[in-house]
Amino acid sequence: NAGVTQTPKFQVLKTGQSMTLQCAQDMNHNSMYWYRQDPGMGLRLIYYSASEGTTDKGEVPNGYNVSRLNKREFSLRLESAAPSQTSVYFCASRPAEGSGNTIYFGEGSWLTVV
Amino acid sequence: QKEVEQDPGPLSVPEGAIVSLNCTYSNSAFQYFMWYRQYSRKGPELLMYTYSSGNKEDGRFTAQVDKSSKYISLFIRDSQPSDSATYLCASRGGQNFVFGPGTRLSVLP
Hints:
The complex is a heterodimer. Chain A is an all-beta fold. Helix content of chain A is 0%, strand content 51%. In chain A, strands 2, 4, 5, 6, 9, 10 and 11 form a seven-stranded mixed sheet that branches. Chain A has a four-stranded antiparallel sheet with strand order 1-3-8-7, with no helix packed on it. Chain A is globular. In chain B, the strands form two sheets. In chain B, strands 2, 4, 5, 9, 10 and 11 form a six-stranded mixed sheet that branches.
């Protein structure tokens, strides 16, 4: 079972470059999330998508954009990368309301902005 | 104040010890509580899930929620070196899941 798959796993960017982190889930989940994890800060929500066609800002959305391409895929884009965006990024998904109250994570994407 | 607080540790215990990991939360609306385990360079994996107050046991793991004091606990019995990881507590508020910063646990052989 693949679960939640993220690509790439590692990436080094120069300041000002753009890139897109890809995420796909094969569990037929409705909701999808992007978090970033920094030492001492825990997991912080960047954006989430409650269902196909909808997206909402989380705690730290500045500098990011998202696209819910279809039910399976939710991408995160950095338009002009900054060193402050150096972090580990996790995609997650959750079943439909009433079918589960927990979220399931991918393996993470390690991003360094120099 | 963060909505979920957790002592980051690190916590080191000998193999076979009982481990107690704790979190506090501030939002009275939280009803769903989770513990995730995260190995180095891996994504968090769900360990335990509880709804409202009470205890839930799964093998060597027991999750406990006390809503009156807004306290979440995870107990690990007969701890093993393979339990060495970072443990994240989490609560659900609406569509969002709020996480503590995690406690790093080392179980020494």
